[in-house]
Amino acid sequence: MLIPHPLLGLRDAQEFTYLGDARLIERPTSGSEADLAEYVYLRDNPAGVHRELWFHEQGDRSWLVVTRNTLTHEILGAELARDVSLARKGETA
Amino acid sequence: MKRLSGGLIDRSQHLSFTFNGKRYQGHPGDTLASALLANGVQLVGRSFKYHRPRGIVAAGSEEPNALVTLREGARAEPNTRATMAELYDGLVARSQNHVGSLNFDLLAVNDLLSPFFAAGFYYKTFMWPRAFWEKLYEPAIRRAAGLGELSELPDPDAYDRGYLHADLLVIGAGPAGLAAALAAGRAGARVILADEDFRLGGRLLAESDLLDGAPATEWIEAVKAELESLPNVRILTRTVIFGVYDHGIYGAVERVSDHLPTPGGAVRQTLWRIVAKRAVLAAGATERHIPFADNDRPGIMLAGAMRAYANRWATGPGTSAPVAIFTNNDDGHRTALDLMARGVPVAAVIDARRGVERQGDYRLLPEAEVVGTQGRLGLHSIRVRTSRGNDTLQVGALGVAGGWNPNVHLASHHRGRPVWDGEKLAFVPGQGGPSGLFPAGACAGKGSTAEALADGLRVAQEALADLGFAAQAVPLPHAESRQDNTAPIWHVPGKRRAWVDFQNDVTVKDIALAHKENMRPVEHLKRWTTLGMATDQGKTANVTALAVMAELTGKTIPQTGTTIFRPPYTGVSLGVLGGGDTGAHFRPRRLTPTHHWAKANGATFVEVGPWMRAQYFVRPGETHWRQSVDREVLAVRAGVGLCDVTTLGKVDVQGADATVFLDRLYANAMASLKVGMVRYGLMLREDGTAYDDGTCARLAEDHYVVTTTTANAGPVYRNMEFARQCLWPELDVQLISTTDAWAQIAVAGPKSRELLTRLVDGFDLSNEAFPFMACAPLTICGGLRARLFRISFSGELAYELAVPARYGHALMARLMEAGADFGATPYGTEALGVLRIEKGHAAGAELNGQTTGQMIGLGKMVSSKKDAIGNIMSRREGLAADKRLLVGLQPVNPADTVVPGSHLFTQGAPRDLAHDQGWITSAAYSPHVGSSIGLAFLEDGANRMGEVITAANPLQGSEVAVRVVPSHFVDPEGGRLRA
User: Fold this and answer.
1) B residues 412-471 near A, CB within 8 Å?
2) In a structure prediction context, what are the per-residue pLDDT tens digits for chain A, which is 93 residues long?
């Protein structure tokens, strides 16, 4: 698989480490145990388009949010996780 | 035997080879199979289950029977298809799967016992007694049923891996593939043309038909010459495309030197990852059999293969006796005509269809079927049932033409579903499948030469237009355009066994049995009967089996199921998948800065993840590792020891918000850490479990260096980057791993301060100026920049001194020299382990992902005043209530040994899970205590000091009475490290 790194262009998937659902970015700040339990344990596992976290461990050490179709492995896009997180924080602020 | 005329063999050269020890001759251009047939060898092996004599069936990679062990010694390769083994001078091959000689296989008794070996027999019979399966039944069955044997010697050959890139990959170099490659090559696209054969041409090489009135080889050679002249075209012969992977990546194996007498020296095989924007699948078609009674005797072949051997390899089917053809289509007649043209006598063409006519001067038996065969080690005669009664024909070989199956394999990767073409009676590529892969020619159901040429050109031009290449004129030669007119005659019913899958010994009866047992879906049929498994993956069998099952169920073939194929198309050796990454190259090996010093000073090394660390240093006279380790431990406690601790992970953290960042990362408070001080830090996982520990040193207001355990250096850094980029990107903080940049040496023991005083450049090491847990950047040895941390893993007065990695070796030598009068002693990971167990420090065995901060006695450290990773979840019910605690254990009898992994029980309690009280995580012989000691997690450990309990290890059969003691065996008050 090839991942379109927003800074480095197409890179082989073997350079990356996979983590999973990009919702891990949305760490709850409420301090509630229930919210954290959901954050830690409950995730969607869709058959289809999925946003997920990949770490460019053998590269520039960027965390990316990659949009991938889990049925076809088609990669629909990739963004810097940092930008995704900042945008989200801007919205909720 | 005399070879036939013509053919693509070089008669000017002779190659000698041996099969089962007997010497034969062949020519360049031969395969082992063609050379064996040319020498009159029909019997080449024994079948998988019944040990029936078997011969060559096919002429290509679909061969189910002719599996031989090629070469000898370490290079012996079992299950090599004789049809794919290119002949070379000195080739040595042996037949497989027989006890005794190939002609008199003792296990042929299995054939007489065949009623017991039908599908599902093992599942039902060898159930009881249970223990017999592993010890008796399975070994006996595996010995009797099987293919070749491995040499079990290391592979002496080299393999390689590489990437190739193309606009258009053309898979198969038959008429469709050559037309496609020519179109793409002329259009200027980057083209890769791959074929598993050693010669371009595909099925054209096997036929006698003319192209533009000339032999097909003339056109092939012209195309080849043009493609070779184009710099944008790469031709890969002897290369199989075995699978389609994501994003247009194709797996290919090139057999670089398998055809040479000695494959060593150069690379034997190369694994190519071909990245192609588009691909044309021109994989051709595979002929199928028509099962009839005893249809598996040597000499019974696919008719198209028989024709290939005659036309391409100038050999008959290994007999001088007449040949018969059994067919359900017109293509069978072509074989008869070609054989006759080459001088092979044809006894009859037996056509199962009604109303067919002769196409040449041969005896035709219409509406007839082969109903039996004779000949123990090779075919002698066949029985034929015609409308006028039964007849026996004396023949030495029989060609069977059951129609052609398109090679849809690669098109059915990526969820492609082939569809049934009721007119052509074949599965052709359907919807889905790999995007960018387009089938053309015979594999798309367009099997005549004219159709294949035109289809290859059309599909390539469409793909090229899609990629923006302007089309170039490619005139195609005039070629035959016959149709086969195959009739739906799938097998000849009868009482005797009729083989569907030769390689797995699956017969029509087995399919009937599967039907009776309700194993009717194709997935069940396959697993119940083993149909379509093993090295050929049912290339000649699957569709026929489906047709038989359809007949039994009264359904149509598409209603019954579809056969799809997973990678690989043909077998891929593990060697080539490994590439060069074997032995020492299996994974990178990391050496510490003092590695060569340690090696020169008697170190024995141990693998710690990718690192090689000094385990202990053997001195003259020491004969047991314990002598070395005990000496090293005592030297640290009494004088001073030196240990390379570079492998611990180091992360440099800088920025205005570094303090905030680290405070959120560590479970314990970090915000209050002063500049010039170090603090122990505990990291939790977000679920509240203890994750990793280390030290956090504040070198400046906005500059920290944190350490991790050796094992977690990578993962902790990854998590820190996750926290920085994903959780708190608004913080001004930067990270970099400096594990490799700094060599770090622990200087531990009561004499450590005095030793270091001799190295530092006017730095005050007094307890007042540089107390326990202090840190500072400084210079040593007259100007070398260094960092000093007063931290202790051993419980003694101790420091860790870091210098740029390239000075690590020199620093170790200098410390040894400067500390000679103190008896400075290098120590390894064993002594390091003993020292930390004596001090009760947690390490990997305690931080194993199942333990909490409370359990390792650090529960109070976990701050409830802040939201750091894992803090909130660590307080949840269940985790927080856990009363297990890290304690020390000492054997009541000092001569006893505490065994790590033992479980703890109250004395006299039953040894079961309900009474389990905990387990021993670490143990060592403590020279300080004078006995074996251990660390353990014990239920309610805080309240059980002094109690005697039992440590049971049923795996080692040990039961030891141990006393519960505090986990600090040495200096529990911590006076030494603050001295």
Assistant:
1) 414, 435
2) 899 999 999 999 999 999 999 999 999 999 999 999 999 999 989 999 999 999 999 999 999 999 999 988 999 999 999 999 999 998 765
Q: Do B725 and A24 touch (CB under 8 A)?
A: no
- DSSP codes joined into one string, B839-866: HT---TTT-SSS--TTTTT-GGGS-SSS
Helix, strand, coil proportions of chain A in percent (round to 5)? 30, 35, 35
Q: Is pLDDT of B553 > 70?
A: yes
- B28: DSSP letter: T
A43 Cβ under 8 Å from any chain B Cβ: no
Asked whether the beta carbons of B825 and B639 are under 8 A apart, the reply is yes
SS (H, E, C) A22-33: HHHHCCCCCCCH
Identify all chain B residues contacting A63, using CB atoms and an 8 Å cutoff: 721-722, 725-726
Residue B341: is it exposed, middle or buried by C-beta count within 10 angstroms (0-12/13-18/19+)?
A: middle
Among A25, A36, A41, the residue with its CB nearest the CB of B726 is: A25
* Residue among B721, B726, B873 minimizing CB distance to A24: B726
Bridge partners, residue B533, by sequence = none
Vertex B529: Cα angle to B55 and B569 (nearest 5): 65
Domain boundaries, chain A: 2-92
State how far the alpha carbon of B839 is from the alpha carbons of B710, B715, B789, in Å. 19, 27, 19
Residues of B in Cβ contact (< 8 Å) with A84 = 726
Residue of A nearest to B433 (CA): A72
Residue of A1, A32, A82 with shortest CB distance to B247: A1
pLDDT tens for B645-688 read 999 999 999 999 999 999 999 999 999 999 999 999 999 999 99
Query: Is the interface score ipTM higher than 0.90?
Result: yes
- Which residues, at least 6 apart from A93, have a Cβ–Cβ distance to it below 8 Å? none
Q: Is any Cβ of chain A less than 8 angstroms from the Cβ of B730?
A: yes
Q: Do B726 and A81 make contact, defined as CB atoms within 8 angstroms?
A: yes
Q: With contacts defined as CB-CB under 8 Å, which chain B residues touch A36?
A: 686, 872-873
B732 at A interface, C-beta within 8 A: no
Tokens 């001759």 correspond to what residue?
A: B25
Q: Where are the alpha helices (DSSP H) in chain A?
A: 33-41, 81-92
- Gap between the Cα atoms of B29 and B507, Å rounded: 35
Q: Which residues, including other chains, have CB under 8 Å from residue B960's CB and lie 6 or more apart?
A: B891, B896, B897, B898, B899, B902, B950, B951
Which run of H or of E encompasses B922?
strand B918-926
Which residue in chain A is spatially nearest to B714 when comparing CA positions?
Answer: A57
In B790-842, at which residue ranges do the beta strands (DSSP E only) sit? 798-804, 825-826
**CA-based nearest distance A52→chain B, Å:** 12
Q: Does B865 touch chain A (CB under 8 A)?
A: no
Q: Are strands B210-211 and B43-46 parallel, antiparallel or unpaired?
A: unpaired
Which residue in A has a C-alpha nearest to residue B723's C-alpha?
A25
Min Cα distance B723 → chain A (Å) is: 9
Instruction: For the domain covering A2-92, report its CATH number.
Output: 3.30.2270.10
Q: Which residues share a beta bridge with B654?
A: B703, B734
DSSP B2: P
| Residue B73 CB burial class (10 angstroms; 0-12, 13-18, ≥19) | exposed
- pTM for the model stands at 0.88
Residue A5 phi/psi, 5° resolution?
-65, 130
**Contact B383/B371 with Cβ under 8 angstroms?**
yes
Is A57 within 8 Å of B718 when comparing Cβ atoms? yes
Locate B5 and state its tokens: 């005329």
Contact A73 B721 (CB under 8 A): no
> Is A33 within 8 Å of B876 when comparing Cβ atoms?
yes
